[in-house]
Write a structure and sequence with these properties.
Strand content: under 5%
Mean pLDDT: 91
Number of strands: 0
Distance between the termini: 35 Å
Shape: globular
Number of domains: 1
């Protein structure tokens, strides 16, 4: 078995994360406001809500879990109404506000990835 180069493995995983983030946002390109907000499931999840959800949980897993909390408020995970509310965007949340928050989460997460070793241990509450 060949030894694993941690730096190369970390870079590969990080490149994959960046690619998938951009792929998610690309799904919004060219869609109308109706289409990004149209409920697609029985829980009323919509595409913009998925972006909002990804922002929340990336902020948690690459923030709180590694003792690097995201500096903006996040919905409570232990209150069902708040935990599920990030699956759709409200009429008061613009597409740009949701996407901009997701990008701010990226910046915060990127700093976490850069600061920690590949084998850093996180703690999930």
């Amino acid at each position: 078995m060949l030894p694993i180069n941690d730096d190369a493995a970390k870079a590969h995983l990080y490149d994959y994360l960046k690619h998938e983030r951009e792929a998610v946002l690309a799904k919004l390109d060219g869609l109308s406001e109706y289409d990004v907000r149209r409920p697609l499931t029985v829980t009323e999840t919509n595409l913009l809500g998925l972006v909002k959800h990804l922002a929340t949980w990336e902020a948690r897993y690459l923030g709180e879990v590694f003792h690097r909390p995201f500096p903006e408020p996040l919905p409570r995970w232990d209150i069902e109404a708040e935990r599920l509310a990030d699956m759709w965007a409200t009429e008061n949340e613009s597409r740009s506000a949701v996407v901009d928050r997701y990008r701010r989460v990226w910046d915060h997460s990127d700093a976490t990835v850069a600061a920690l070793a590949l084998d850093a241990t996180g703690r999930v509450a």
